[in-house]
Write a structure and sequence with these properties.
The chain is an all-alpha fold. Helices cover 80% and strands 0% of the residues. It contains 15 helices and no strands.
Length: 326
């Protein structure tokens, strides 16, 4: 128990240091007075409306999760499932990826459903999330390839990568690494981390197989697409809050959403620092000044973070109230 507590403490500390360091690096040279002025000129409705879309997306996620739980022979209350989802997002601000375990634990407590069974449904959920996100990424990069390519080229990133790939040292290290992987493949395959990766892949395959046995497949797919559509809406309608982003196109919003998504999956609490950095860079693709992009990223992320923390904390209380007989 002590080792587990120490491990969690180290994970939390490292995540905070990484996120805090990135956040400090992004904002250390920003003009605070300019940011305050930009915020004062923002349209508050278009900051609050995306938060409502966010809550709606979490409700749709709860409905989809309930569809996966019902084949286990249980029919949990929608209110409990919804609150569990909100608690999950709240937990992610304490420890990255802790939310998946937290929501299963909450639903086990109030609905008496097997924790292992619930964890299996979460794996199915995340498998479909990954598929939908990869489809969005592919479509986005295909639609805006010229913009992204020109930016990477102007920043010298493509030339740097090409130079690295053709460097003799890099080629030599690559050949050596492949040779070592081949000669020590049996020992590598016996490592515990390899077993974890193999187990994760098997779970994803099992999740896809379970989908073929599901009733209302089209409703499940509709919920999956709707979740990401609402996520996108959260970002795009936030553009309308500021004069310097309100005229950005739908495709600009899609590119910004996709690039920012990589910051959310980073191993830091709520994507702090990582999401800001990537979102600022994405807005720069469409001519938004760095200072203004920094204001946008700060305000939008702060609003969403406060909403998730507040909704998660309230959900903990609501769960106690609506399940008081238990």
């Amino acid at each position: 128990m002590e080792n587990k507590t120490l491990k969690n403490a180290i994970q939390i500390t490292v995540s905070l240091l990484i996120g805090g360091g990135l956040f400090w690096w992004v904002y250390k040279d920003q003009d605070i007075d300019r940011m305050v002025k930009d915020f004062q000129g923002a349209k508050i409705f278009w900051i609050l409306f995306p938060l409502a879309l966010g809550l709606l997306s979490h409700f749709v996620r709860a409905l989809r999760w309930k569809m996966l739980i019902e084949p286990l022979g249980k029919s949990p209350k929608t209110s409990n499932v919804f609150c569990s989802v909100l608690v999950a997002y709240f937990a992610n601000f304490i420890l990255p990826r802790a939310g998946e375990v937290a929501r299963c634990g909450v639903l086990k407590k109030y609905e008496g459903i097997s924790f292992t069974g619930l964890l299996g449904t979460v794996i199915v959920e995340r498998t479909f999330d990954m598929i939908v996100l990869l489809c969005i990424v592919a479509v986005t990069f295909a639609a805006q390839f010229d913009v992204i390519y020109s930016y990477l080229h102007s920043e010298g990133i493509i030339d740097s990568l090409a130079g690295l790939a053709s460097h003799p040292v890099f080629i030599g290290l690559t050949v050596l690494s492949l040779a070592l992987l081949f000669f020590f493949r049996k020992k590598i395959m016996s490592l515990s981390i390899f077993d974890k990766v193999r187990g994760m892949i098997n779970n994803m395959i099992s999740g896809l197989k379970s989908f073929t046995k599901m009733k209302n497949k089209w409703l499940f797919l509709f919920h999956s697409v709707m979740i990401f559509a609402l996520y996108y809406g959260m970002l795009y309608f936030s553009f309308w809050a500021f004069d310097f982003t309100e005229n950005l196109s739908v495709l600009a919003g899609l590119v910004t959403y996709v690039i920012g998504s990589f910051g959310i999956v980073a191993p830091v609490q709520g994507g702090i620092g990582a999401w800001h950095y990537l979102t600022i860079g994405a807005l720069g693709l469409y001519g938004v000044a760095h200072e203004q992009a920094a204001t946008f990223a700060f305000v939008v992320h702060l609003a969403q973070m406060l909403m998730l923390i507040g909704a998660g904390a309230i959900s903990l209380v609501v769960l106690q109230v609506i399940n008081r007989k238990k």
